[in-house]
């Protein structure tokens, strides 16, 4: 597995706060402190992300909006659970059925279904305020972008994370 980190912005810019991951990836692109880190806006191209993950990155940091019940704008760091033996292949096939709505767990399942393996995987998520047809982030989520940028930088440049 490569020691090169991947930062993947995920989301749909046409659904308000769902564009959070895309905006974070845009801000991170070209930052000097992330030299050697592959930063890409995958948007709604989950299948493309799954194929990219077959190249072996460690760590993988996905950035996405994720409702978890907190206040809008709350940033969470979620470490992906180790692979489970139950149903991984089935979940990966389900992910192919709706390729434009691949959540991070669907992408990871698809990678495993294609025979790939994963190292450390984190999701830097933000509690959305408004996920409906509109352009632009809500005030709360826009205010969380800088927090997410710092969090991703810390995760991508830290050595010896477990």
Task: List its traits.
162 residues; alpha/beta; Rossmann fold; five-stranded mixed β-sheet; 35% helix
Give a structural overview.
It is a single chain. This protein is of the alpha/beta class. It has a single domain, classed as 3-Layer(aba) Sandwich (Rossmann fold), CATH 3.40.50.1450. It is 35% helix and 17% strand. It contains five helices and five strands. The chain has helices at 20-28, 46-53, 88-97, 104-113, 139-157, and strands at 6-10, 38-43, 60-65, 75-79, 121-126. The protein has a five-stranded mixed sheet with strand order 2-1-3-5-4, with helices on both faces. Strand 1, helix 1 and strand 2 (38-43) form a beta-alpha-beta unit. Helix 1 (20-28) packs across helix 5, helix 2 (46-53) crosses helix 4 (104-113) and helix 3 (88-97) crosses helix 4 (104-113). It is globular and about 40 Å long. The relative contact order is 0.26. Mean pLDDT is 84; it is low at 85-98.
- What ranges have pLDDT less than 50 throughout 5 or more consecutive residues? 85-98
End-to-end distance? 15 Å
Instruction: Provide the spatial order of strands within the biggest beta sheet.
Output: 2-1-3-5-4
CATH fold type: Rossmann fold
- Quote the average pLDDT: 84
Q: Please state the second-level CATH architecture.
A: 3-Layer(aba) Sandwich
Largest sheet: 5 strands, mixed
**Silhouette:** globular
